[in-house]
Design a protein that fits this description.
single chain; globular; two-stranded antiparallel ribbon; alpha+beta
């Protein structure tokens, strides 16, 4: 019985070691041919968080609290047909394993865009957008501790335009 428990525990540790996250997906695909990649570090977010209120259109928006709360931004845009399926599968596995909640989905002529968040009633810990069409896949992942009310206010303002 002890051996079975130890074997089961070892199996769980092995599975968790292979778990994907935004950073590992970025590292896996960022150097591939026909892939555009962007990473923004926590230090850059702290620097950007010192920017005063910004005017977006006719609105004055205070992005500082959201920007300062971010700990990583990972963007992968692939036009490499040989890896698009694997990139999409890895992103979907990451979304499922992180218990992300579907926030929005849009589909049109073979294109699909899905936006997900994970967190609590007060804080969003992660934001993922996965866009896929026949010849291109885009994965965007934001990590941090974003105040949910400020994030939702910003999203509502942008969607109302």
């Amino acid at each position: 019985m002890k051996r079975i428990i130890i074997l089961f525990a070892a199996l769980l540790l092995t599975v968790s070691a292979f778990a994907q996250n935004g950073k590992s997906i970025y590292q896996k695909y960022s150097d591939a041919e026909n892939v555009s990649a962007v990473y923004i570090s926590p230090a850059m977010f702290r620097l950007m968080g010192r920017i005063p209120d910004m005017e977006v259109g006719e609105d004055k928006v205070n992005l500082s609290p959201i920007i300062r709360s971010l700990t990583g931004l990972y963007v992968i845009n692939s036009e490499n047909a040989s890896i698009n399926g694997s990139l999409r599968a890895d992103a979907e596995r990451y979304i499922k394993s992180g218990h992300y909640e579907l926030l929005m989905e849009a589909k049109d002529s073979g294109q699909a865009v899905r936006v997900y968040t994970v967190g609590s009633d007060k804080v969003i810990e992660g934001f993922v957008m996965l866009a896929a069409e026949s010849d291109e896949v885009t994965f965007i992942c934001l990590d941090g501790q974003m105040p949910r009310n400020e994030f939702e206010d910003l999203m509502a303002r942008e969607l109302a335009k």
